[in-house]
Amino acid sequence: MLDSGLGRDTTVVALGGGVVGDLAGFVAATFLRGVPYIQAPTSLLAMIDASVGGKTGVDTSHGKNLVGAFCQPAVVIADVSTLATLPPGHVSAGMAEAIKHGVIQDAAYFRHIVEQAGRILERESDAIIDVVRRSVEIKADVVSEDEREQGRRAILNFGHTIGHALEAVSEYGLLHGEAVALGMTAEVKLGCKLGITDTAVIPELQTAISALSLPSEINPPLDPDALLAAMAQDKKNRAGAVTFALPARLGSMARGPDGSWTQSVPKQVITEALAP
After folding, report:
1. Which of 64, 90, 101, 149 is catalytic?
2. Which of 207, 234, 245, 253 maximizes the CB count within 10 A of its CB?
3. Which domain holds residue 202?
4. What pLDDT is attached to residue 238?
């Protein structure tokens, strides 16, 4: 861009999935101290989640999205016809974020996803558009209240503390959505062990994950110590403690004794939650 002599009248267009969107957004945030950019997501995960909210970041060998910036796109254009050539596994992976949105804020939406799972996996346009629209509404609602994750935006990290560790330890062999599905499963188990999460969430989440052809078990198992080490690198941690956003019940997130949306969890409990 510098070699081409581009100036501050430049607009960056991110045409692709979440990786393209994150990279383009980070470039736009830092090039000449900031130029506008447009998100044109072409994967379901990017349409549902990654293109919305203004977080940009790139992965490093130390962990997920550890280098990045907050930079809101000028516009997001999601054309679901681009999903026609998306591999089936990536359709399922994208739906992990939709499941997450249902868990954190909208139980009716969560159950709608399960009911429409077959049509979604078949990429029927009206079913996909409904999912993209509702997920964007939920994420936009949360982000508009807390753009820079000083408070409630942390609930969007449900499933991601363990999910990001799984990605790092698997050397990104897992798709992001697959890792998030596994992370949500483990974090719900963790919440139940702590008495924070209603145990009824476990079978409902398992039903949704199965309906969308997502994994519910880490196979082959990954080293728990390596996963804990990866979690220690997570940018969401505070004062050296591993923190989690945990549901109280389907459609509602728990708050800690201090009113915060995340809670520190002992390593032993994390290890137990990671067990098959």
Report:
1. 149
2. 245
3. 90-274
4. 60
**Number of domains the chain is built from:** 2
pLDDT of residue 237: 62
**Sign of the torsion angle spanned by Cα atoms 258, 261, 266, 268:** positive
62 part of the active site:
no
Is position 6 within any domain?
Answer: no
| pLDDT (tens digit per residue) in 87-112 | 999 999 999 999 999 999 999 999 99
* CATH value at residue 19: 3.40.50.1970
Catalytic residue of the set 152, 153, 178, 204: 153
Q: Which of 90, 101, 176, 189 is catalytic?
A: 176
* Residues 98 and 157 grouped into a single domain: yes
Q: Is 219 a catalytic residue?
A: no
Q: Is 101 a catalytic residue?
A: no
Question: Is residue 54 domain-shared with residue 142, that is, in the same domain?
Answer: no
For residue 68, which of 30, 112, 106 has the smallest C-alpha distance? Answer: 30
Is pLDDT above 90 for 35?
yes
- Per-residue pLDDT at 151: 87
- Of 167, 151, 145, the closest CA to residue 96 belongs to 167
The predicted model scores a pTM of: 0.91
State mean pLDDT over 54-70: 83
**What would the mean pLDDT of 179-202 be, rounded to a whole number?**
96
User: Is residue 139 within 8 Å of 53, Cβ to Cβ?
Assistant: yes
Burial class for 171, CB neighbours closer than 10 Å (0-12, 13-18, 19+): exposed
Identify the active-site residue in 55, 64, 100, 134.
Answer: 55
| Catalytic residue status for 122 | no
